[in-house]
Amino acid sequence: MDPTDEDLLFFRQRGVDCVYCAVKPEFNSVEGLLSVKKRYAEAGLRVHNVRNLAVTNNQADIVLNRPGRDKKIEDYKTWLRTVGRAGFHYTLSNFNLAQIVLSALVETRGSRTRDFA
Question: Torsions phi, psi of 82, nearest 5?
């Protein structure tokens, strides 16, 4: 979340009225999220979806039950509570097992395919 005033004006001039925003760690609090919401609102934009990539992306430890799994689950639950308290009703997560266990692209019978670990 570092759009310049010019960026925000550009969005509005293109007819954009709703945005998706991935926030930096310093905005991962209710107060931080409210400041993000306010920044966009002042430009006439509504933040529809806010995402904390450190918590919601690449969750291999959770999906594959690796060490650190329980901490990541708690971090995720804390993020969901924070998002809700800031008045957001939508966030994204990436629990895509194919991306997590994909180890390589291989050629099988003349066709490229995925090779899973």
Answer: -65, -45
Say whether 21 sits in a helix, a strand or coil: strand
Q: Could you tell me which residue, 102 or 115, shows the higher pLDDT?
A: 115
Burial class (CB in 10 A: 0-12, 13-18, 19+), 82: buried
Q: Please work out, in degrees rounded to the nearest 5, the angle formed at the alpha carbon of residue 62 by the alpha carbons of 56 and 65.
A: 170
Task: For residue 33, count CB atoms less than 10 angstroms from its CB and return exposed for 0-12, middle for 13-18, buried for 19 or more.
Answer: buried
**Range with the poorest average pLDDT among 29-33, 40-44, 97-101:** 97-101
pTM: 0.74
pLDDT in tens, 68-90: 889 989 999 999 999 999 999 87
- Map residue 32 onto helix, strand or coil: helix
CA dihedral 33, 35, 37, 39 (to 10 degrees): -150
